[in-house]
Structure prediction request, 477 residues.
Amino acid sequence: MNPQPFAAAPADAPSLESLRVEPLLTSAFDTDPAGVYAQLRRMYGPVAPVGLMGVPVWLVLDYREVLDVLRQESVWRRDIRYWRARAEGRLPQDWPLLAGYEVRQTMFMDDEEHLAARQTYHSALGPFQDARTPQGWELRSAVVSYADELVAMLAAESGTAGFMDLAAQYTRPLLLMVTTRLFGFPVELGDEMVIDMWRMLDGGPDAGPATGRALAAMTRLAAHRRAVPGDDLTSYMLLADPSLSDEQLGRELFMNAVYLNDITGNMVCNTLLEVLRGNATVRRSLSAGQIGETINRAALANSPVANMCFRFAARDVRLGNFWIRAGDVVSPSAAAAHQDLMAIGSSLVDSTVSTRAHLGWGAGPHQCPTAARELAGTVVATAVGRVFDHFTKVELTLPADQLPWRSGPVVRGLRLLPVRYELGPGHPTTGDPARLGSVRAAANGAPRPDPSHASRRHARGLLQALRHLMWGTRKGG
Ligand code: HEM
Prediction:
């Protein structure tokens, strides 16, 4: 089953174009992707041809084959120019996924260009990955502070007990605030960007123009931080590679914004769900402070990056039961591979699969950079921890198997996370100066200066911008 890179496909081997493909993104996939993966596996084996909005793609389902594809970069290329259907002009002009793949950034680079781009990330994200550095400490303390602002706002808007959507009224605004802070958006630009990110991520009718505006906003941010450097990722990227043009940095920030908003946000919701749906092992691990283990379990059960981005075969190669031809497109599925991994684990007597074997961060040369993983892990752990610090009661108001999911070609995330809640007696309130004490304690480090007035004003400005998105038009905003 391993790829045999040096053999050519026999002439009579069926090509991707000649196979009858079933569309992947159906309502069955929305409600039960595991059932769809299992059926594809029964029909085709470890690799299946599927249709993605009318374009045929090989979906890689089994753990070993997914790992092979992720690790062998000489066979499986990221540069979109390897894609034969694109080079031959066979992709529909208005194919919804094309615009994203045409944004040329680190994920879609190969070899030396890719290594250099990763090195830039390594240098620029490094200061934020570790809670012992000033930047790392400040970031963690900002996450705590934003989480507390949101809880205070909930208490003011909806009272100390009631119903809320932990996705719309906590996770999403929190991640947008963190992005604004980490990227170094000035308030005016931040508000504008925040609203467009929501439009873009929700894929509504104005998502296209909103995407264009978000890219343009990232490019303006790059230019702004080149002129006025700050203690933020954008400025550190420029410091690491001053040759980056504003446009290229804008494209990198755009991709990072998707990771930091949608994907990290999904990881927060999925981890909250793991705890809330009452899995006793998970609850124990959270109360024992093993939040990392809870995140791993959530990543294994519901990987936020369900199907990883495309790879293109550099030459004919055998994978699963098929010959993949040079220039064919494959999508390695972390979600399907996890299902396979757990099936392997449960078939081995006295053996369980390590939760760390998940592919939620990818694998091989394009896996999520260590510094980004550390940073995202800190944000997720802090965001989840803060919920269980402040709420004495949080219960799902829908059975876990009836929660609505958004299943796209790449990302899978909860649309809603509706809960009944009760806040504890010491919960934060708006304008509560005592809260800063808890911010400092929760940031768990030596005494540091309080977050600046400017930073708090910044958070308040953003909250005002987000208020009507979190509570609808009821309270204006
Ligand atoms: C919980 C949150 C996150 C998850 C689950 C996640 C997951 C992933 C995965 C699966 C990949 C590999 C995609 C592929 O091979 O097709 C990836 C790549 C990447 N991630 Fe993350 N990520 C997260 C957060 C972040 C954050 C916060 C940043 C930056 C601020 C980031 C930056 C990157 C970059 C730059 C790459 C591309 C690496 C390359 O192509 O060499 N990620 N991430």
